[in-house]
Design brief:
It contains four helices and 46 strands. The protein has 626 residues and is mainly beta. It has a seven-stranded antiparallel β-sheet with strand order 24-26-27-36-29-34-33, with no helix packed on it.
Length: 626
C-alpha cells in the first residue's frame, strides 16, 4: 500500500493506494482505499484481518496539521473499499508497523482481536479492536512518557509459537534503540537500552531460522557505524532478548548496498513460497523529508528452507560491485602498453616490474553464447615476464571501508579461453589515501571450471577480516585485486566478465551491467568527437581569447583533464578562427562536473561563437589519481 503524497510530505486531498500481489513479486490492480478532499494522509498501518477483511488505519492531517486517525476496510480482496470512519475514541497517534493478531487463550489465532502500534509526544500507544474493526480503543504501552529518551516508531514481532512479543523502539534523540518484551501486547515493561544505533530511523524485526534479525536502514546523512545508503542487520539469540530485552553488542552485517538515498522505512513479508521479502523507497534528497521516486523489492532469504543468515538475494541477480564488470566499455584506448602500477579505466592494472600489452578483441560467438551475459568484447593481456598482472578496483569512503570488512564476498570470472596461470583474489583496506596503513585480507585462489568451446569460469567465496576499532584518516579505501602472481614465463589470457558480490554464492553476471557507466565515470572518462562536432559555446574573455565549458560526470576526486585538440576551430558569424592555444582549468572539488577550456583565437571578439572539431582528432580524457 502507498499514499499519493510522500511519506514525509503528505498533501491535502491525496489518497492511499492499495495494490494486489499473487506471487509476492509483481503488484497490480491499484485501488484507492482512502481519499478525503480536506485531509493529507501521512502514515498507514494495516493488513489482512478476520475472514475476508483487509483493514487500514490511516493517520491523516487537516489543513492546520492536526492529527486524525481513520479506519477503512475492504471485504473483497481490496477491490472495493468502504467509507473512512474517523476514530474518535482513541488518542490521535502516528501509526507504524503492521496489524498483529491477538490470539485466544489457547494460543490459536482470533478472527476478531487485532492490535497495532503508534506514537505521539514521546508516548508509545496501542490501538486495538475486539470485533474485527467495528470499534477501536487505545492505551499507553508504558503508562506515560518514556523516561530518558523520545520514543517514536515502534516495531513489534511475536516470538514463534509463544504468546510473547518483543518491541524495538526508535530513539528520536539520536541514541540507541530500546527493547521491551511482553505477554499481553498492552502492558509493556520499561524498555531496556541496547547497543544498536538507530541512525534516526526505525528498525525492523524478523524471526527466522531460530534467530532474531534486526534490520536498519542507514540513510545518507544518518550513518550507522559508518554505513550509508545501505540495509544492514544484526542477528541475535532470541532467548537472550526474551530474558533481558537487550541484545549486547552483535556485529553489524550488510544486507543490501548501493540504493541512492534510501528511505528509512522497511516493510517485510513472507511470501507463500517461504521467501522473506522487503520493500522500501529511495531517491530521497540530501535534506531528508523528500520526494522518493523509486521503489525496491528485495529478497531477504533466497531459498525455501530456513537459512542461517538471510542476506539479500535480490529478485534479479545480485548487484555487481565491480566497476565495468562485463569489460564491455573502454574509456582510454582499445589497446596499449602498461607498466608497473598503471591502471586504465576498465580496471586493468600491472602490479609487477615488467611491461606488457592489453587489447580489446571480439569474443568468438561460440564462446560468448555459453556465458550468461553474452559478452561482445574481451580484454586480452600479454606478457613475457611479469609479476601480479591483473585487474584492480578501488572504492573510497568510510562506508565502503566498513562494508567490505568482516564480510563474505564472492568473486567470479569469465574467460574466453582457459586461463593459463593460477588466478588469485585479495582485498586490501587502506586507512587513508595519504600516509595510510594497508591492511590486507589473505589472498585466495579461484577454482577454474572449463566450459564448452574453450570458455572458462572460476569463482571463490572470500571472507574479509574485521576492522573494528581501526582509526580512519582522510579518504579511506578498499581495493579489490584479481591477479596472476607468477613471475617469468609468458601467458596470454582473455577475460570478458568479472562479478563481485556480497554472499557466499555466485549469481549470474547480467548482460547490460547497468551500473558500469556510473561507476566507471567516477575514475576516468574519455570524450572523443567526430569531424564537425560542436564541442561547446565560446564566450569572449578578452580580445583574441575565450572560454568554453566542458561537462563531464562527477569524479571521486578533483580530476585532471588531458586534451588532444590538433584541429579545433572557433566558428563565428564572420567565419572560422583558428585555435592557436588551449589551457584547461579543471574543477578542484570532488563532485564538480565541468572544467573551463580557455582558447587563444586571434580575431575572436564577439559572442555567439562555437568551438568545433574540424578534423576528428579532438579528444578529452578526464581522470582522477586513484
Amino acid at each position: 500500500m502507498k499514499h499519493d503524497g510522500w511519506r514525509h510530505e503528505g498533501s491535502i486531498g491525496s489518497g492511499v493506494q492499495v495494490y494486489q500481489s499473487y506471487d509476492g513479486r509483481q503488484v497490480r490492480n491499484p485501488n484507492t482505499a482512502f481519499s478525503l478532499s480536506d485531509r493529507a494522509p501521512a502514515e498507514v498501518v494495516g493488513g489482512r484481518m478476520g475472514g475476508t477483511r483487509t483493514g487500514l488505519i490511516v493517520t491523516a492531517l487537516d489543513a492546520s496539521s492536526n492529527t486524525l486517525n481513520y479506519f477503512v476496510s475492504s471485504d473483497d480482496d481490496s477491490f472495493e473499499w468502504g467509507a473512512p470512519t474517523l476514530l474518535t475514541t482513541i488518542a490521535p497517534i502516528f501509526t507504524y508497523g503492521k496489524f498483529h493478531n491477538i490470539p485466544n487463550v489457547d494460543t490459536t489465532p482470533s478472527t476478531n482481536d487485532w492490535i497495532a502500534f503508534g506514537y505521539g509526544a514521546g508516548h508509545i500507544y496501542w490501538i486495538s479492536t475486539a470485533n474485527n474493526g467495528t470499534t477501536w480503543t487505545s492505551g499507553d504501552c508504558f503508562g506515560g512518557a518514556l523516561a530518558g529518551f523520545l520514543g517514536v516508531e515502534a516495531y513489534v514481532e511475536r516470538f514463534p509459537g509463544q504468546n510473547k512479543w518483543v518491541m524495538i523502539i526508535r530513539d528520536d534523540t539520536g541514541g540507541n534503540a530500546r527493547m521491551s518484551v511482553t505477554t499481553d501486547l498492552k502492558n509493556w515493561p520499561a524498555p531496556v537500552a541496547t547497543s544498536l544505533p538507530t541512525g534516526a530511523n526505525p528498525l525492523t524485526l524478523i524471526f527466522h531460522g531460530g534467530r532474531l534479525y534486526i534490520y536498519a536502514t542507514a540513510r545518507r546523512g544518518q550513518p550507522i557505524n559508518g554505513a550509508t545508503d545501505a540495509l544492514v542487520y544484526w542477528d541475535v539469540d532470541p532467548a537472550v532478548v526474551e530474558a533481558t530485552s537487550a541484545v549486547g553488542s552483535p556485529t553489524m552485517k550488510l544486507a543490501y548496498a548501493g540504493s541512492t538515498h534510501m528511505l528509512g522505512y522497511l516493510n517485510t513479508v513472507m511470501t507463500p513460497n517461504g521467501y522473506w521479502e522487503a520493500s522500501f523507497t529511495s531517491d530521497e534528497t540530501e535534506l531528508g523529508s523528500a520526494n522518493p521516486s523509486a521503489s525496491h523489492v528485495v529478497m531477504l532469504s533466497g531459498v525455501q528452507t530456513e537459512v542461517a543468515s538471510p542476506a539479500i538475494i535480490a529478485t534479479r541477480p545480485n548487484k555487481n560491485l565491480w566497476d565495468n564488470g562485463t569489460l564491455q566499455s573502454v574509456t582510454r584506448a582499445a589497446s596499449g602498453s602498461l607498466s608497473d602500477g598503471v591502471i586504465v579505466a576498465d580496471r586493468l592494472k600491472w602490479f609487477g616490474a615488467a611491461t606488457g600489452t592489453y587489447a580489446r578483441q571480439d569474443v568468438p560467438y561460440d564462446i560468448a553464447r555459453t556465458m550468461p551475459h553474452k559478452p561482445r568484447k574481451m580484454t586480452t593481456i600479454v606478457s613475457s615476464a611479469t609479476t601480479n598482472c591483473g585487474f584492480s578496483m578501488r572504492r573510497y569512503g568510510a562506508d565502503h571501508f566498513r562494508m567490505a570488512a568482516d564480510a563474505v564476498l564472492t568473486i567470479s570470472v569469465h574467460a574466453a579461453n582457459t586461463w593459463p596461470n593460477p588466478l588469485f583474489f585479495k582485498v586490501i583496506h587502506r586507512t587513508a589515501k595519504t600516509a595510510g596503513t594497508d591492511i590486507p585480507s589473505p589472498a585466495v585462489q579461484l577454482t577454474g571450471d572449463p566450459k564448452p568451446n574453450g570458455g572458462w569460469f572460476a569463482s571463490v567465496a572470500y571472507p574479509t577480516i574485521g576492522m573494528s576499532g581501526v582509526s580512519l584518516g582522510a579518504d579511506p579505501s578498499v581495493e579489490y585485486q584479481l591477479y596472476t602472481p607468477l613471475a617469468g614465463g609468458g601467458y596470454d589470457g582473455s577475460i570478458c566478465g568479472v562479478k563481485l558480490e556480497f554472499g557466499d554464492t555466485a549469481t549470474a553476471l547480467e548482460q547490460d551491467d547497468g551500473d558500469m557507466p556510473e561507476h566507471l565515470s567516477r575514475t576516468a572518462e574519455m570524450v572523443t568527437f567526430a569531424p564537425g562536432h560542436v564541442i561547446g559555446a565560446v564566450y569572449p574573455l578578452a580580445s583574441g581569447s575565450g572560454g568554453c565549458v566542458l561537462e563531464y560526470e562527477p569524479k571521486d576526486f578533483a580530476p585532471s583533464v588531458t586534451i588532444t585538440a590538433s584541429s579545433l576551430i572557433v566558428v563565428t558569424a564572420g567565419g572560422s578562427v583558428a585555435v592557436t592555444g588551449l589551457t584547461v582549468a579543471a574543477g578542484t572539488t570532488p563532485g564538480q562536473r565541468r572544467c573551463v577550456l580557455t582558447v587563444t583565437a586571434p580575431g575572436l571578439t564577439q559572442p555567439g561563437a562555437l568551438m568545433v572539431d574540424a578534423g576528428g582528432s579532438a579528444s578529452f580524457l578526464v581522470s582522477v589519481d586513484h
